[in-house]
Amino acid sequence: MIVCDSLVKIYKTKEVEVLALQGLDLTVNRGELMAIIGKSGSGKSTLMNIVGGLEVPSAGRIIVDGQNLAEFTERQMVQYRKKQIGFVWQKSGRNLFPYLTSLENIEAPMLAIHKSAKKRREKAEELLALVGMEHKRGSYPAQMSGGEQQRVAIAVALANEPEILLADEPTGAVDTKTSSNIQDLFRKLNRELGLTIIIVTHDMKLAHKVDRVVMISDGKISTEKILKQHYRDMLDQLESPDMTDETHEEYSVLDKAHRVQLSDDMLAAAGIDTNKVKVRIEDGRVVIEAEEKKE
Ligand SMILES: Nc1ncnc2c1ncn2[C@@H]1O[C@H](COP(=O)(O)OP(=O)(O)OP(=O)(O)O)[C@@H](O)[C@H]1O
Ligand SMILES: [Mg+2]
């Protein structure tokens, strides 16, 4: 559904140039529920903004649903942002109009799509029920908790029935329990609506509840973790098992030039502390080890 091909993003300011993405490759399948993790400044929001059509890459290609975003006219881009993508931001202030009620907030993005007010109201009621917020239909954002506002924000993002939901740290400002409820909601939307969802998060607990976790470091994907089938089945039965590191298998990602990135933990465990390693093939495996120390 989404193919990022050697994406590069350079921000130029008066004094400096920042290389936010450095040749990032990523493929997201239709109906996937995935998380992106990585240190502050690693390029996560930059990637989300490029996928959402809010920013243009400096080099590389982004293809969504077979369409190269670079080839869109301005009008097509506006349509793409409005209809194909739903956004949820960390700060609920960016998601909701303070002077509109929950229902009105959900109706607002539909103005461009549905002419009939009755139809908008029906659809808004439906979405409010989907996110479990019917009881707050007449409340203004300031009258709701952070978690409640985020649920309404998710309904707003879904108003125009997007195929892709992008959430940039949606649970950054709520407590653990609320965060867990929102995670379950993402999973439900993914399973029930077949929505493709990408969530940026710092929260490892949340990252453990998705099918795939990719880690960005220095503007590139470095490792991927894929949820083991056994845990996937348990989650689908909504038993909500305690997610630990055991639930996912970790993969390092080969880039186009066949380079692979190793984590600090791996290097430490293998006793590699210089920038030279020995690489050899052993029984069909690639073995990387520390260079022999000269006495
Ligand atoms: N508009 C901009 N102008 C200049 N530099 C920018 C701009 N936006 C982002 N950057 C820089 O690009 C790099 C990547 O930023 P980005 O916001 O994508 O990181 P992030 O992974 O989302 O971080 P965080 O976890 O803190 O949200 C950072 O070094 C940041 O300072
Ligand atoms: Mg960010």
UniProtKB/TrEMBL annotation:
Keyword annotations of the record: ATP-binding, Nucleotide-binding, Transport
GO cellular component, one term: membrane protein complex
Keyword RNA-binding: no
Annotated signal sequence range: none
Pfam families in UniProt: ABC_tran
InterPro entries referenced in this protein's UniProt entry, alphabetically: AAA+_ATPase, ABC_transporter-like_ATP-bd, ABC_transporter-like_CS, ABC_transpr_LolD-like, MacB-like_ATP-bd, P-loop_NTPase
GO molecular function: ATP binding; ATP hydrolysis activity; transmembrane transporter activity
Positions of the ABC transporter domain: 2-243
Protein's UniProt name: ABC transporter ATP-binding protein
